[in-house]
Specification:
Elements lengths: L2 H19 L7 H7 L5 H25 L5 H22 L4 H20 L14 H18 L4 H12 L3 H21 L2 H4 L4 H22 L4 H24 L1
Helix pairs in contact: 1-10, 2-3, 3-6, 3-8, 3-10, 4-6, 4-8, 5-11, 6-7, 6-8, 7-8
Family: Belongs to the 4-toluene sulfonate uptake permease (TSUP) (TC 2.A.102) family.
InterPro entries: TM_pro_TauE-like, TSUP/Inactive_protease-like
Pfam families: TauE
């Protein structure tokens, strides 16, 4: 199967997951780039950031039109993650490849565990922002995005709900602003690695992901949300186990 076809299929699956679940789908981009398209872990995390930026900005536009983005609070949350994202992005290319793969596997497993938790385990925090906790959550998310090339929606949304007492739709919309800002900050420090990105693979992958996200939104209206989430979580756990095994052998 040609690289173009594989890129289109993988991008479509990533976009479908993003559109249906509102977050977490980008975690599939890195393993797809490594194991289907032959990228090194460092190159895959850089390419995944490009994909995350494009898909997040597209989704952000739709949520902004619907009034689901809290711009001021989101900007402050994102600001705490900009420096960690930039520093982590600069370090990513210098880490041993097996370590990067193992770290990504751990994050993928954490994402799956987050999705398997019942919705009642995500209570809204008390009204009123808690600056220290919000800054800590923003910094941690920025470091994760910069190092591993994942959007981190599966962490950003719970943080916005529990730390800043956002309702779910506002948390999803605002998380896209945070993810976009962190991803751009990380890319700014990866000039050397972005120069080597294969755009003949990334462009169709990204295009398919954006189109797949629209289909994912429609899919979410027809299939039970919890069923979609559990199915995706099981797939993610399998991917994490495979990557960890690969990193340790």
């Amino acid at each position: 199967m040609s690289e173009l076809v594989l890129a289109l299929i993988a991008g479509g699956v990533v976009g479908l997951a993003l559109g249906a679940l509102g977050g977490g789908g980008s975690v599939l981009a890195v393993p797809a780039l490594i194991y289907l398209l032959g990228f090194t872990p460092a190159a895959a995390t850089t390419a995944a950031l490009l994909i995350v930026v494009a898909t997040s900005l597209t989704a952000l536009y739709g949520h902004a039109r619907a009034g689901n983005v809290r711009w001021r609070t989101g900007a402050l949350f994102a600001a705490a993650g900009l420096l960690p994202a930039a520093v982590a992005g600069a370090l990513a290319g210098r880490l041993p490849q097996p370590l990067l793969t193992a770290a990504f596997a751990a994050v993928a497993a954490a994402a799956a565990a987050r999705m398997l938790r019942p919705a009642r385990d995500l209570p809204a925090g008390p009204q009123g922002a808690r600056p220290a906790q919000a800054a800590g959550a923003g910094a941690g998310l920025g470091a994760l995005t910069g190092l591993l090339g994942v959007g981190g929606g599966f962490l950003a949304v719970p943080a916005l709900v529990t730390v800043l007492a956002f309702e779910m739709q506002a948390a999803i919309g605002t998380s896209l602003l945070v993810i976009s800002a962190n991803s751009l900050a990380s890319l700014a420090t990866r000039g050397a690695t972005t120069a080597g990105v294969d755009w003949t693979v990334i462009a169709p992958f990204t295009g398919a992901a954006i189109l797949g996200a629209w289909d994912g939104k429609r899919l979410a209206t027809r299939i039970s949300g919890p069923l979609l989430q559990r199915t995706f979580a099981v797939v993610l756990l399998a991917v994490a186990a495979f990557m960890l095994t690969d990193a340790l052998t």
